[in-house]
Amino acid sequence: MSNAQPAPTSGLVIVDKPSGVTSHQVVGRLRRLLGTRKIGHAGTLDPMATGVLILGVNRATRLLGHLALHDKRYLATVRLGQSSHTDDADGEVVAVADASGITAEELEAAVAPLRGVIMQRPSSVSAIKVDGKRSYARVRAGEEVELPARQVTVSELKVLDARPVGSCLDVDIDVECSSGTYVRAIARDMGEALGVGGHLTALRRTRIGGYALDDAVTLGDDAPQLMPMAQAARLSFPVLELTEDEARDVSFGRPLSRPVPGDITGVLAPSGELLALYQPDGDGAKPVAVLV
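-> structure tokens emitted (292 positions)
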């Protein structure tokens, strides 16, 4: 008699997104492979960008809003000497000034103010809504949009390499940042600081929170294996193992009488199944999302 467990019907798939497709198109492909409509993604990547994209299947879609808030890491290439209205190579690129002679010292002076807790003006082609309409949609309709700056954290910004390309300078950077940070905006701001213009020509996301490229798969013709929700919770949040009585209460969405260790905590049944996400509430805890 086999002891094999049935494949989970809910879980995560960590995809290494290729260039040239939208995040929504990746969702569509996974829907076809798994035969279910209930799939979403956390942390959109632009079509030109590659790398870690988290997809949730069935009940795991309820985790995605929390996973998208994790810090992220990127490898990117900034082209100095040209600017773009989209701050990346997908927009209309125009020459600004000769950047080929910029020195390492000048580069460091330009990136230093972009580290730490900073006020960053998002790219105008972001998905931020302006009066109910996405900013990128307004830009594509011909409107001039300038979004207000907001606080983000760039915990690491390293210049890895720089090489002249004609009158431009291509600069490879390594960025670790909070959710809501725009690497395109970093490229733009580097160019503005140096007076030569700047835009992004390559972007690869190497990590979202505890999910890295090592966890990622390339979608092929076969359905990928799902990461169980309990494993996803352990990568993402502190977890609390419950008694049978507590697990029964949680399955009905009742509060817990004991505290949880994090602002968002995964609570596990004695069997190891992820039952819900809970948050502190007085001396106990209350549900954020019940997953059973």
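The helical segments are 23-34, 64-67, 104-111, 135-140, 183-194, 229-236, 244-251.
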